[in-house]
Design brief:
Layout: E1 2-4, E2 9-13, E3 22-27, E4 31-37, E5 41-46, E6 52-56, E7 61-63, H1 65-73, E8 77-78, E9 83-88, E10 93-97, E11 101-102, E12 111-114, E13 117-120, H2 135-140, E14 152-153, E15 156-157, H3 159-169, H4 178-181, E16 186-187, E17 199-203, E18 209-217, E19 220-225, E20 227-232, E21 237-239, E22 246-255
Protein name: NlpC/P60 family protein
Organism: Microbacter margulisiae
Keywords: Hydrolase, Protease, Thiol protease
């Protein structure tokens, strides 16, 4: 069984309960495989990043295997602005955050048809030519968005989602969490050798990667902590703009995009 999210945001939870932890969010247009079905909940695998968890059954739209296969085999356009509305043919508004997937989007008609619905979305808000979309600029569009564990949208986002969503707006699919992201790309040995757009990773005392940011230059980083903001960085790590103390210890620099 297969499904797609045709709502603005869909929470993906650790257990089949509204009170359980939000692991991440499924954005509009993201599609998934259902591997367990309960009365009110389904356990899914999001095909865009492989994340697994539980969603409320009534919030999904079922699709058949043919549609699912075409979605998996076709490159999909995404929303390139932090927030905008799509309109249905019944004049209903659907909120779309940056990085939302636009399945089978017709650029000329400015519309898409999926799940028995026809949805209109302006091409001015679509990442059509991803080669001309700057990764750092896409991430900066989320400046001052509040931090939210598991969040993937402009109204609440965590550090690794900021990286993942901004990359998606540039046509690059990345894993969901920082421990996976640090395994990708080219290692940069020194901050002095880093470039704008390189990713910087930080760890806990146990040595496990727990945080990621995006370099604006070799002394400033954009990251989600409290809110998405710009903070000073040196070879020791991030110096908090709130306390003046080091808040995150630098452990790795990777060039991914």
């Amino acid at each position: 069984m297969y499904g797609i999210n045709l709502m603005g945001i869909l929470p993906l939870r650790s257990e089949a309960s509204e009170e359980s932890e939000q692991l991440t969010q499924i954005l509009f247009g993201e599609y998934f495989r259902v591997d367990e079905w309960l009365e009110k909940w389904v356990h899914i695998e999001n095909m865009r990043d492989g994340e697994r968890g539980w969603i409320d059954r009534k919030m999904m739209t079922s699709i058949d295997e043919d549609v699912f296969s075409r979605l998996c085999d076709t490159s999909q356009l995404v929303s390139s602005v932090p927030f905008a509305y799509a309109m249905t043919d019944k004049n209903e508004r659907i909120p779309l955050t940056g990085g939302s997937v636009l399945p089978f989007y017709d650029v000329e008609k400015e519309s898409m048809s999926i799940g028995g619905r026809n949805i209109m979305f302006s091409r001015t808000n679509v990442a059509i030519d991803t080669a001309n979309i700057d990764f750092v600029s896409a991430a900066l569009a989320f400046l001052h968005s509040p931090y939210l564990w598991g969040g993937k949208n402009v109204m609440g986002i965590d550090c690794s989602a900021l990286v993942q969503v901004a990359a998606s707006m540039c046509g690059v699919l990345l894993p969901r969490n920082s421990r996976q992201q640090v395994m990708i790309g080219q290692q940069i040995n020194f901050l002095s050798e880093a470039q704008r757009g390189d990713l910087v990773f930080f760890d806990h005392e146990d040595g496990k990667i727990s945080h990621v940011g995006i370099l604006l230059n070799n002394h400033e980083v954009l990251h989600a902590s409290g809110e998405v903001h710009i903070a000073p960085i040196d070879h020791y790590g991030i110096r908090s703009v709130f306390t003046g103390n080091y808040s995150h210890a630098l452990r790795a620099i990777r060039r991914i995009i």
